[in-house]
Amino acid sequence: MTNAKGGCLCGKLRYEVLKQPARTTICHCKFCQRATGSAYLVEPIFESADFKITLGTPKRYTHLSEGSGKEVYIHFCDNCGTKLFLTFERFDGVIGVYGGTLDDPNWLKITPENAKHIFLGEALRGTVVPPHFDTFKKHATENDGAPNAATIFAEAHIIDTE
Fold first, then answer.
1. How far is the C-alpha of 162 from the C-alpha of 130, rounded, in Å?
2. What is the mean pLDDT of residues 15-39?
3. Where are the domains of the chain?
4. Which of 4, 19, 35, 76 is the most exposed place for a label (fewest CB within 10 A)?
5. What is the mean predicted confidence (pLDDT) over 113-141?
6. What would the CATH number be for the domain defined by 4-158?
């Protein structure tokens, strides 16, 4: 199966993705912790052309990123409150899906070759980071687009920040 479907809790909003994501970001920043109510966001990133809303019209909340100073747009259901996806002023042409909204989150193929962990400097203590993934203390790129160097752990790594 190359495409997948997802939606909100109440079923008022539905979407479809046409292929596996270009990449998956596992983000441990405070924004993603708060937005998900969890330790991190599993965020498959799709080209806009590979994502479509199939039912309903999401509401949009605009948030100013503390890190980049750019706008982040959170698209959500105004009935049940489920956050479905993100779009970005900084990254035009891509959509970041809240991975847990996929009907089958295991449809995602998350591997060291197509995924990375970012903002480990803000990760919750005790978070286990699997080996062989590119990891970053902050974002993978600077605000000007310059790449940051990745750290790759040879074994599982446990976050122990104080």
1. 21
2. 96
3. 4-158
4. 19
5. 96
6. 2.170.150.70
